[in-house]
Every structure is written in C-alpha cells, then in structure tokens.
Design a protein that fits this description.
Blueprint lengths: L2 H4 L5 E4 L5 H7 L5 H6 L4 E5 L11 H13 L3 E11 L7 H14 L3 E7 L7 H8 L5 E5 L9 H13 L7 E5 L2 H4 L4 H8 L3 E6 L1 E3 L6 E3 L6 H9 L6 E3 L8 H14 L1
Parallel strand pairs: 1-2, 1-10, 2-3, 3-4, 4-5, 5-6, 6-7, 7-10
Antiparallel strand pairs: 8-9
Length: 262
C-alpha cells in the first residue's frame, strides 16, 4: 500500500456558487443543501454575496440556515466579499467584527475574507482579540485582483503575523484558479504558502484577460494534481467550479468522489 492509499481522503466542500449564482440567489442557499449532502459533501460554503436580500444576512436568518446545514449532516464555511484591510492599508476592524458575528450565527467552521490592501502591518493582536471566543477560524483568500492576488503580499502578511506574535490569527484559503486572474504561478504560490493553508478552493480557468471564467479542472491536469500534492493533504477541498446545470445533483456526486481521490 503506497502513501496515497494510506492517507485519509480529504473532506470535500461544495461552494454554493457551484450550483449557479443566479440559481442560488433565486432559490436560496437552503434549496441546495440536499443535493450537496447527497453528493457526499462534508461541508457547504455559504456566500454572502449570493443572498437575494440583506435580511438573509441577519443573525436569526443565518442561525436558521446553519441549523439546516447541520441537519443535512454537514458543516458550514461562511464567505464574505469583505476585505481584511482597507484601501489605506489599515485593518478594517469593524468589518471583521461584523463578519465574525455573522459566521458565528451560522455556526461556521471557517470565516473567509479577501485580503484587501495589505501594507506591511498586520495588526495581529487586534485581529486575535476580535476573533477571541469565536468558533470560526479566520482565513483570507487569494483574490482575482492584483492587490490581493499577489504571492509576495501573502508571504509578507504571514511574516508580519509571526513577527507581531499572533501567527495563527489568520490562515489561508488557497484558491488554485484565482492565481490565473492575478497573473501569478499557482505552483510557485503553493510552494511558498502551503504551511499557512487550511482550506483549498478548487477550480481552473478558461478564457483570457477580462473574459476569463472558472471551469472544472481537467481529469488529466498534471499541474492541478501537483499543486494538490504540495498543499496540506488534510485541508478540506472546495468545489468552486460550475456544476452541470442540466444535472447538478448527479454532477456534484461525481465531482465530490473525483476530488476526494485526486
């Protein structure tokens, strides 16, 4: 038995947007929980930007949605488009506190934000204080913009967190496909940032420039497979590419099994 056969299969998350942004906005997140659970997903990522009404982000509504996720035998990730750092480089403490409150109402395992404009000072102690007592772990994602999709910025962030004495205050969601949007090499990013990664978004990209769009990784994509081998094997993997809209539940089942074995 080889090492790959010995390791436990990673947990698989289905990101709500995989079912189609407009479909989720029109029907709500809860409408897709049954399909995700039946597909074998361990987790479900709730996306704040896919709420059709601001009331969907109220704490009672999030608590009810979190209860539904649990009833389907899954755990939740809460993703918000808010950024950790403002345009002037300062920590957005108010946005972080609000996001933590929402994530905790949902009962999320992870709270995912964008990096924003990191200017060299992490303000790690404040981040740790805001998150103290929260169930959710804070992870920042490499985004599709140059400012929060730079390998160097993430290396600098984690160095600053360690220097400021709160290295575990922020961890990382590593989005494999997003590096294409920001013009960075995903394998280079994986080598540099793997020690900080707790959650992996899985997708590739098609098209070019402003016309780039997310797609499922090809089964024979050797670069994608190599990146997964570099990243922590115990980090949950999220399906963030579009599922087949003609048969989303069946496609979800196939994709969960494939990604768990990849």
């Amino acid at each position: 038995m080889n090492a790959k056969e010995c390791r436990a299969a990673p947990e698989i998350v289905i990101v709500a947007s995989a079912f189609g942004a407009e479909a989720v906005r029109s029907r709500g997140h809860a409408a897709w929980l049954g399909a995700a659970a039946a597909a074998g997903a361990a987790g479900f990522e709730v996306r704040r930007e896919l709420f059709s009404h601001e009331a969907d982000a109220s704490l009672p509504a999030l608590h009810a949605l979190g209860a539904a996720v649990t009833q389907h035998g899954m755990w939740a990730v809460y993703s918000t488009p808010a950024a950790l750092y403002r345009d002037d480089g300062a920590l957005d403490a108010a946005a972080l506190a609000a996001a933590y409150a929402e994530a905790d109402a949902l009962g999320a395992r992870w709270l995912k934000l964008q990096l924003g404009t990191f200017a060299g000072r992490a303000d790690a102690v404040t981040i740790a204080k805001i998150g103290a007592g929260s169930r959710a772990r804070l992870v920042v994602e490499n985004g599709q913009r140059e400012l929060d999709g730079s390998i160097a910025n993430f290396v600098a962030l984690f160095a600053a967190l360690e220097r400021e004495g709160a290295a575990d205050a922020v961890r990382m969601t590593f989005d494999i496909g997003n590096w294409d949007w920001s013009g960075q090499a995903p394998l280079e990013a994986a080598v540099a940032l793997a020690p900080h990664v707790e959650y992996v978004h899985c997708k590739s990209s098609g098209g070019q420039g402003a016309r780039r769009f997310p797609v499922a990784p090809a089964p024979d994509d050797q670069l994608f497979a190599k990146i997964l081998r570099v990243l922590p094997s115990n980090a949950p993997r999220g399906i963030e590419f579009p599922l087949d809209e003609r048969e989303p539940a069946e496609d979800a089942r196939r994709r969960v099994a494939w990604l768990a074995a990849a």
